[in-house]
Design brief:
Layout lengths: L2 H19 L3 E4 L9 E4 L4 E8 L6 H9 L6 E8 L7 E5 L1
Parallel strand pairs: 3-4
Antiparallel strand pairs: 1-2, 2-3, 4-5
Length: 95
């Protein structure tokens, strides 16, 4: 397991902890290499989360794939970007 993979897993788990504290049941999409890393499900809605760390940004192709991904009306697509040393991610909704 390389250092980048370990860092990614660490941030995915931190995103999951935040969602769980907000009342979501979470799933980590380990090894899926899809548009989303974490899924959160609550009684009211669903969130699909792409997790990035440091200065990593979504490529235009990744942003487009996320925006075009078909979801039910009560679903939000989020980017959680973790900066080094941050206690919370920067959150951006992708529509």
């Amino acid at each position: 397991m390389n250092a980048n993979y370990q860092k990614g897993v660490r941030y995915e788990r931190r995103s999951m902890e935040i969602l769980e504290a907000a009342g979501y049941m979470t799933l980590r999409m380990a090894g899926s290499h899809g548009q989303f890393d974490v899924i959160g499900i609550s009684r009211l809605d669903i969130v699909l989360v792409q997790v990035k760390s440091g200065t990593a940004n979504l490529t235009p192709a990744e942003t487009e794939a996320m925006a075009l991904f078909p979801v039910p009306p009560n679903t939000r697509k989020l980017l959680h970007r973790w900066k080094k040393g941050a206690t919370l991610p920067l959150v951006k909704e992708i529509s």
